[in-house]
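Question: does this match?
>
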Amino acid sequence: MIIRDQTEADRQAVYDVVAAAFNQTLEAELVEALGYAGDTALSLVAEHDRRIIGHIALSKMEAPFPALALAPLSVRPGKQRMGVGSWLVHEALSRAQASEWAAIFVVGSPNYYHRFGFSVEAAKGFLSPYAGDHFMVLRLAPALPTTGELRHAPAFAALH
């Protein structure tokens, strides 16, 4: 398996993987809308035997510091629980840190994202429509503010 940047040629395969992973098209349409709007900061695919089996997107946020939103993370059914999602997250986090982003926010399962360093507690001071028990932050910069207003890319409004 290889993790690589998504290319334009991957667009339909990524749409199919995301739609299959969530058993609906809403998240796949989010990925497309983020890309069309130019809000995608990073889009990676997991490829096995020349087939796209996973995808992760990081999109730009409005925040008092350089911040990204991780969403969605998708793995094709039948390939889940095999480490594909973890490999995608690790690579995305590594690239974000190397690009000097200060933080990454995610809405998801604390049990899953805690292993990567995401914290619900550390996100509690931030104002977001997604704030709550599943809203987390991973601090990439040592001197990150603990409060502030956050805005996801406009494409997220369709999910809310």
Summary: The longest helix spans residues 84-98. The mean pLDDT is 95. The chain has one domain: 2-158. The chain is about 30% helix and 30% strand.
